[in-house]
């Protein structure tokens, strides 16, 4: 019991320092993709080019290693996907064949690791809530589809499009049936859930990343079920966006968790990409983009957001692995 208490206090201190550190030295900003072209499967919506330069460890096959809840090195699909998209962006920007080869290695790993359901399990990821209902993430499925489809467009190899379709098929399965979709209002409302758990809490950036995957596939092959799903989740997102507005900052999820400065900036970039992607809804997205950008420029809002985020982190009971 004493060891557990000490572990919890240590985790609280770590969180407090993390928030203080973030206030002064924020992670690399993820702005609108520099190679992004509306209505083309080309560059990615968000600039992930820095993800190509992994600063952590690698396994014997050259794959990036994260750490699970017990500190063991694991290859996490989302890290692989984002690193792959980072190499893709670097290749588009500079034409360096090294980055294209690295992207190819990572996308082939992704195809090989896709399970029978069409997904990539994140059950070992300590960041996922303990009461999760399925081991999959809508964000991971959608980002994987976006990566796979970019390689498909260049190579013409159906294996990548097929893998992307399987990823999206699972993403659109209802959570209660093992997927990552939340259907409300007789199916008219469609939420894409990054971390499906007992108490539904839709993470905004994860929902949008998942939606991007649908956009990419529909641009290449407008399968009616995908077109319908895209329209439903887009209209649901538009209707729900005001719930993510705190009046001075954006929320990270629908449960009331405030976004860190990093995620607030990411929300702004994602909304900008949506305005370009869906010109018929540009007025709505541009209004939100402008409002949230103004929040970010206000030093009092920034200080309030960081203070609120710090308090939320300190009040949340730490998850400590003791065995």
Provide tags for this entry.
disordered C terminus, mainly alpha, 3-stranded antiparallel sheet, 10 helices, Glycosyltransferase, single chain, 323 residues
Would you give an account of this structure?
The structure is a single chain. The chain is mostly helical. The protein has two domains: 34-242, Glycosyltransferase; 245-323. The protein has helices at 2-24, 77-94, 97-113, 138-155, 158-171, 204-220, 224-240, 261-277, 282-297, 299-315; strands at 57-58, 64-67, 73-74, 181-184, 189-192. It has a three-stranded antiparallel sheet with strand order 1-2-3, with helices on one face. Strand 4 and strand 5 (189-192) form a beta hairpin. Helix 5 crosses helix 6. The longest helix has 23 residues, at 2-24. It is globular, with a radius of gyration of 19 Å. The two termini are 13 Å apart. Mean pLDDT is 89; it is low at 17-26 and 318-323.
Protein topology:
Elements: H1 2-24, E1 57-58, E2 64-67, E3 73-74, H2 77-94, H3 97-113, H4 138-155, H5 158-171, E4 181-184, E5 189-192, H6 204-220, H7 224-240, H8 261-277, H9 282-297, H10 299-315
Antiparallel strand pairs: 1-2, 2-3, 4-5
Helix pairs in contact: 1-10, 2-3, 2-4, 3-4, 4-5, 4-6, 5-6, 6-7, 6-8, 8-9
Strands across the major sheet, in which order? 1-2-3
Number of helical segments? Answer: 10
Helix content: 40-55%
Taken from the alpha-carbon principal axes, the silhouette is: globular
Predict the CATH topology of the largest domain.
Glycosyltransferase
Low-confidence stretches: 17-26, 318-323
CATH class of the largest domain: Mainly Alpha
Please name the CATH architecture of the largest domain.
Alpha/alpha barrel
């Amino acid at each position: 019991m004493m060891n557990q208490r000490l572990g919890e206090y240590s985790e609280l201190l770590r969180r407090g320092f993390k928030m203080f550190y973030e206030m002064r030295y924020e992670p690399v900003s993820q702005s609108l993709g520099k190679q992004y072209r509306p209505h083309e499967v080309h560059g990615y919506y968000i600039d992930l080019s820095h993800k190509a330069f992994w600063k952590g460890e690698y396994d014997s096959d050259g794959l990036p290693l994260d750490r699970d809840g017990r500190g063991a090195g694991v290859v996490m699909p989302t890290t692989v996907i984002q690193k792959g998209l980072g190499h893709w962006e670097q290749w588009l920007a500079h034409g360096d064949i090294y980055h294209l080869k690295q992207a190819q290695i990572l996308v082939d790993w992704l195809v090989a690791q896709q399970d029978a359901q069409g997904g990539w399990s994140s059950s070992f990821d300590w960041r996922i809530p303990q009461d999760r209902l399925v081991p999959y993430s809508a964000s991971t499925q959608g980002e994987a589809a976006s990566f796979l489809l970019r390689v498909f467009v260049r190579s013409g190899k159906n294996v990548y499009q097929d893998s992307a379709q399987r990823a999206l098929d699972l993403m659109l399965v209802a959570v209660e049936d093992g997927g990552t979709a939340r259907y409300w209002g007789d199916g008219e409302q469609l939420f894409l859930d990054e971390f499906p758990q007992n108490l539904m809490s839709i993470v905004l950036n994860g929902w949008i990343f998942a939606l991007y995957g649908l956009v990419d596939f529909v641009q290449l092959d407008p399968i009616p079920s995908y077109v319908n799903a895209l329209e439903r989740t887009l209209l649901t997102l538009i209707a729900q966006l005001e719930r993510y507005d705190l009046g001075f900052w954006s929320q990270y999820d629908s449960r009331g968790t405030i976004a860190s400065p990093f995620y607030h900036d990411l929300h702004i970039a994602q909304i900008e990409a949506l305005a370009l992607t869906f010109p018929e809804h540009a007025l709505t997205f541009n209004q939100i983009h402008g409002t949230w950008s103004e929040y970010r420029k206000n030093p009092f809002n920034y200080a309030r957001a960081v203070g609120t985020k710090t308090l939320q982190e300190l009040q949340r009971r730490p998850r400590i692995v003791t065995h």
